[in-house]
Amino acid sequence: MRVLHILIPEQELFLEESNSFHKIKETSLTLEHSLLSLSKWEAKWKKPYLDRKSKTAEELIDYIRCMTINSNVDPYVYYAISEEQLKQISSYMDDSMTATWFSDDKKEKTSNFSSKIITSELIYYWMISLGIPVEKFEKWHLNRLLTLIRVFNAENAPKDKKKRPTNEILAERAALNAKRKAQLHTKG
């Protein structure tokens, strides 16, 4: 499921700021949790969305607005999203959208990266550095894109040779030194 469809039923909302009622038509929202959505939100709010700080209700509603890919949506529709629909949106955003997993996933639950602050520009940088075509992947589900970046990093990382135990290395060096002493007829 690349996108999420939410149906907001027709209803009337009371608007406190104007002390009036506003009728909302039944609206189908198509939402996409992507790098593009993240970029739009960060451009407006001028702060990272993926930090661990809690967001205000207005910031969360605005992120859903940024996720919306259909046009001409009544701005008041977002205030008619039910608690159940918010849970559905949250579940969609948390979904990994991939079968790939990493052995350290339990350690890095939130962002799948270090405690470094991740912004949309940093993700774009990673994509460009790794040769991932931005125009093909910026609309992917954000968690799937971050997983792809981790796969690139893991596959491109130098493969360390397995470390040998210290006592094995010391024994090998002692044997080599003994052999050289015998060959050179020295005491050390």
What does the model show?
With 188 residues, the protein is mainly alpha-helical. The chain has one domain (4-156). It is built from 7 helices and 4 strands. A hairpin with a 4-residue loop joins β2 (11-15) and β3 (20-24). α4 (120-130) crosses α6. The longest helix has 19 residues, at 166-184.
Total number of helices: 7
Task: Outline the low-pLDDT stretches.
Answer: 107-112
**End-to-end Cα distance:** 70 Å
Strand element count: 4
Mean pLDDT equals 87
Shape: rod-shaped
- Quickly give the structural class: mainly alpha
N-to-C order of helices and strands: EEEEHHHHHHH
Strand content: 5-15%
Helix and strand topology:
Blueprint: E1 4-8, E2 11-15, E3 20-24, E4 27-31, H1 35-45, H2 57-67, H3 83-94, H4 120-130, H5 134-137, H6 142-156, H7 166-184
Helix pairs in contact: 1-2, 1-4, 4-6
Fill in the keyword field for this structure.
188 residues; mainly alpha; two-stranded antiparallel ribbon; 7 helices; rod-shaped; two-stranded antiparallel sheet
